């Protein structure tokens, strides 16, 4: 794979893709700089030199590629056949560099720091999923200090061969497996009915935060029976203006009666205020009404770009929508309660892979008679449990607020709404924070690979950790967000990182371990009937 010229020169080019938001790039730059120094030393030790393809910008005070325009300019100066490293310690907008990577002929290595604080891991996972969707060949590595044996071995292989091979023996293609007949029949029968009914995803502007992998092409999505209603966030904002103050106050009163705690202050710039919460209540009412008006079975709000400059964060709205027990919203014309007794499934950051997955999961779990609330999380980070309570490796699944209170220990009464960090959310707005209850879940991810829809599924256990350990993990990540302590069954840390094609992962509870395995099998059969290539990952029992 490596060319003779690149091998003889022993030169690696390095790019650092970044956020679109200046504040994020500035905050993460010191960590990026530290990582690059360590990486350069590791490459030098192997006899290779590093050419950084773009300089530090003294005006912006960071050295990240921060736009697609800049990415195009940078790649014009990168020889097309050289070995190329994309090094990440920040959330990155993949579209900044996808054009350059799409035409690059030399070996590509995506690389991130193993950290919960600095979001390089989630950024890299998104880039990996986007490259996979585009059909661009790449290798990937991760490390906490870039001095461990795993990293060194992978780096040496890439320098010598242009590829890094990882153990993916935990992945089993469904076509090679035999499911119990009853599970297979249940899943396929349900899927045929689902496809015949057809469904609508309400998409409030596609392409959030550079997530190319989160856009499912219509020609792949539509054969599943699901279609997009393309909506505008400006329409959502306009609809918010029609919601009365009294209606917003009624939603807030519902929250307070349920016991939801609001961490209110008075400084609009740095604290959550009641005024911000009331605007979120208006957004919630407006979102439900638009979903009903257009017949949407699930909706996704982008928020991050555009709407963030007009309204407080959408996170409290998203978690509420995903919960069956939520404030009633009435049709302004008829007075009828909309979606009575149901959640309005929401796919955070308008991730359409999560949208299809979440909708299928919600309706299938209803058919199974299980609690249907589900959500995506970021695959944020993982670490050993320092309290000694759990021997297994414990992942931190964390998302900004889309998790439903039905997932939390104590439900609504144990949940809180805290201000989103001002660095990202100028107009504030609260999250929907809680600790996920112990139990068994089915996890999944829908993604595009080789021009087809795929679905990975597995079984995991959510564990309860002592409060001190939970607080440590929150401090290492984002303490305003809901958290899920997760043990993946039959999958190591490095196997998960090597395989997973997204920064997001979908999760839903099952009543117990046995039912989690059964539900995973049924969902696998359903996804296959919908036309997806299905893969069981880790320890999923086949009987």
Q: Provide a count of the helices.
A: 16
Mean pLDDT: 96
Q: Radius of gyration, rounded?
A: 23 Å
Strand composition percent = 15-25%
Task: Give the low-pLDDT segments.
Answer: none
CATH third-tier fold name of the largest domain: L-fucose Isomerase, Chain A, domain 3
| Number of DSSP E strands | 18
Distance between the first and last residues' Cα: 43 Å
Overall structural class, as computed from helix and strand content, comes to alpha/beta
Give the SSE layout.
Elements: H1 4-9, E1 11-15, H2 22-45, E2 49-52, H3 68-76, E3 84-88, H4 98-103, E4 108-113, H5 120-134, E5 139-143, H6 149-161, E6 171-173, H7 181-197, E7 199-204, H8 218-221, E8 226-231, H9 233-240, H10 245-258, E9 261-262, H11 274-293, E10 298-301, H12 315-321, H13 352-368, E11 374-384, E12 393-398, E13 416-417, E14 439-449, E15 452-462, H14 467-476, E16 483-488, H15 493-499, E17 504-510, H16 513-529, E18 533-537
Parallel strand pairs: 1-2, 1-3, 3-4, 4-5, 7-8, 7-10, 9-13, 15-18
Antiparallel strand pairs: 6-18, 11-12, 11-17, 12-16, 14-15, 14-17, 15-16
Description of the molecule:
A hairpin with a 2-residue loop joins strand 14 and strand 15 (452-462). This protein is globular. The chain is an alpha/beta fold. The protein is built from 16 helices and 18 strands. The chain has helices at 4-9, 22-45, 68-76, 98-103, 120-134, 149-161, 181-197, 218-221, 233-240, 245-258, 274-293, 315-321, 352-368, 467-476, 493-499, 513-529; strands at 11-15, 49-52, 84-88, 108-113, 139-143, 171-173, 199-204, 226-231, 261-262, 298-301, 374-384, 393-398, 416-417, 439-449, 452-462, 483-488, 504-510, 533-537. Helix 11 (274-293) packs across helix 12 (315-321). It has two domains: 4-161, Rossmann fold, CATH 3.40.50; 181-537, L-fucose/L-arabinose isomerase, C-terminal (L-fucose Isomerase, Chain A, domain 3).
